[in-house]
Amino acid sequence: MIGLWPVLDSYGRYLLAKDAENEHLVSASEGYFLTEEAMREGNPQEILERGEPAVLPPTLIIHGSADTNVPIALVERFVANYGKAGGDVELEVFPDQPHTFAAKAGPLADQAVELMAAFVARVVAS
Question: Which domains are present in the chain?
């Protein structure tokens, strides 16, 4: 699995968005999940914390340290729990980069593509 600035703690992000009065993220979360209970039920972070059985494929996460949409602390917590659950996970942090930083062509996108290609090659070889 490869995640680019993924929402790995949907409920945690929702709470942060509410605190920051980010109406766009709050309404998007409520529109998708409909209830806070559903947010928590399908939350990857909480699935790991509850110790539920889960398939844990080798995973690469690419994330910017300045992402205010999905703060890096949420990602680091997920990575720690994924590893504790037995998953093989790599986190590549791009310093001072915001959410979706590599979505446009350029050196950062090129670097992200190189990381993804190397990850796939390692996983396929093993």
Answer: 2-125 (3.40.50.1820)
